[in-house]
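Hey L., structure's done. Input below.
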Amino acid sequence: MAMRSEEGSRVSVPMRVVFGVVGVTAALAIAGVVVTLSPRPANALPAYAAQTKLPCGKCHVNPAGGGPRNDFGNAFAANGHQLPK
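Output:
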């Protein structure tokens, strides 16, 4: 790959520089995909439902449980995952 300088003479860019930039860009793209698609552990535990004898939907927005917590679920978490006495 050659470019022209201001004087009109050719300036050569070494191919290893070009391939190095492409390689770094590809590595960053692959790392981004791996981080984005890697599984994450769930924080919701059915053990809390067994402990409290309440359905999972009591603490979560989704009636089936899982996903974001509702106000009751946030209060339960703030209380050390214990029901108020």
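The chain has two domains: 2-37, 46-78. Residues 46-78 form one domain.

-- N.
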